[in-house]
Every structure is written in structure tokens, then in C-alpha cells.
Amino acid sequence: MGPFTLAVDVKSSSPVSSDTSKQKMQNLQLAPKKFFASVKAGDEKPFDFFRTLFEGVIAGGTAGVVVETVLYPIDTIKTRLQAAQGGGKIVLKGLYSGLAGNLAGVLPASAIFVGVYEPTKQKLLRTFPDNLSAVAHLTAGAIGGLAASLIRVPTEVVKQRMQIRQFASAPDAVRLIVSKEGFKGLYAGYGSFLLRDLPFDAIQFCIYEQLRIGYKLAAKRDLNDPENAVIGAFAGALTGALTTPLDVIKTRLMVQGSANRYNGIFDCVQTIVKEEGPRALLKGIGPRVLWIGIGGSIFFSVLERTKRFLAGRRPISHPESNSKQE
């Protein structure tokens, strides 16, 4: 069979093309303005849920472990600053206390978060209009955070109790918390954790994704690792600063143990403001912004690099075989 040719009658096609160009101009004038960066799902490859889930789990777990290991001492200082009442001194020894036990929780929690976030994001981007991509990112971040909270909260409780030296090891912490406070002791401050982490996850990933989409559209190319790192650092630092009061409340509720000094979130806020002043709600903001800013830089650069590595190992589909089948 010879090559396929397309014959066009220029005279007969000119009125049609003129009408088409007019129609396109009208559509552009009537098109609503977009207030967020947008990405068309139609331009992307077909959605593979299980592969997206698998790659998200691997990439999320890898990024989470790297960040937690590198930045754990800063997190320990932040926790001790927030837990200190009045003019208590901050101990700078044992800054890696509880790291091993924390990694045992961070690995599955980060894997679950990204494993849920990525397919949810892809599905929502295909469901929502292009100008609502920010809503898709916000929603996917909140859903991913909710799924990961089932592991994150017990991990956070044990980690913070060890950071302030209540327990010597993670197994001892779990055993003694359950024996004294019951199983619910491992979920102390769960409400305040969700109050902090759901908006944090939603806002951080939304800012990151929107900035990344906007930068790619402006640069007309894929981003490199340093660019992903800078965007991740900005998104993390900004979100960390905005959610510091929520983090202080969560820390106080989680480390109070069986003493029950605070009776819930609102009582915690009232007691802190009454006894220590409103500025106490910003305790640890410096280490928190530094920690999450650097963490965002490392997390998102490792995440994107791992995702690219996994994408490069996908089985290659041969277009020749598809054309033969057609």
C-alpha cells in the first residue's frame, strides 16, 4: 500500500477555515479567566491507578526517611521549645533520641500519604475543570494526610515523648503508654494533629504543585532538581509558619501524658494564652520554619527524582504492535 495522502481543495476550504477562525476568536473571548495554574489531563498519558499507587508508595517512603534522618535534631529542639513551660531550659543532648522508632513509623506513613495523594490527585485533575486544579491539590493533600494519620499519630506521640526524655526506647514508650493510658494514649492529641496536619498537607502540596505548574508553563520545560528544591523549600517554610500555633497545641496535648493538664483543644489554647501569653502559641517557629523549609527542599527533590527513576523503569509499549493490531 502506498503512502496515505490528503487532498485539499483550497477554494472550497477557505470559507470553512474563515468561519472556524472566527469561532475560535469568539470562544477565546468568552473563555473564563483562570486564577490558578492549570494542567490539562487530556495531554497526559492514560491513568494507571495501581502503578501510580505503587510509585507513590516507593517515592513517598524514600523521601520521608531521607528528610527525617537529616533533620531530626532540629525537630527535637523544636519539640523541647514547645513543651517547655514558662522559663524552662532547653537540653541540647540526645537530639537523635527516638529516631529509630520514628523511622519505623515515618516510612509507612510517608509511603501511605504519597501513595494515596498521587492517584487521588490524578483522578481529581481529570474530574475537575482545568481552572480548579488548586482544589484538586488541596483535596488530595487532605485525603492523603487523613489516611497517613492512622500511623503518623502514634509515631508522633512516641517520638515526642522520647524527645523530651520521658522514655528511653520506642518499645518501652509504647508498652508504658498503653499500660498507663490505654491504647487511646497512642492517639493522644489526635484531634489537634488533624487540625494541624490536614490543612498543612493540603496547603503545602497545593502551593508546591501550583508553583511548579506555573513555573513549567513559563519555562516551557520540565523542572530540574534544584528548581524543585527551591519551590519545595518555599512551600514548606510558608506553610510551617502559618501552622505553628496548631503545632504548639498538638505538642502540648501529646506530651501531657496521664496528667491531663489540658482538657481538649480549646482549653489548651485558653490555658496557654492565660498563663504564658499569646506569643507562646508561636514557640518554636524559628526551628519549625527552618526544619520544614529545608525538609520541603529535600522531600520534594527526592520525591521528584524517585518518581522520574521509577517512571524510567516502566515497561515500554511499542507503537508498531499497536499499529499492526489496528
From TrEMBL:
It is a multi-pass membrane protein. Solcar repeats lie at residues 51-123, 132-214, 227-309. It holds the Pfam family Mito_carr. The chain crosses the membrane at residues 53-74, 95-114, 134-153. It is found in: Membrane; Plastid, Chloroplast membrane. It comes from the Eukaryota. The keyword Endoplasmic reticulum does not apply. GO terms for cellular component: chloroplast membrane. Keywords: Chloroplast, Membrane, Plastid, Repeat, S-adenosyl-L-methionine, Transit peptide, Transmembrane, Transmembrane helix, Transport. PROSITE patterns: SOLCAR. Coiled coil: none annotated. Belongs to the mitochondrial carrier (TC 2.A.29) family. This is S-adenosylmethionine carrier 1.
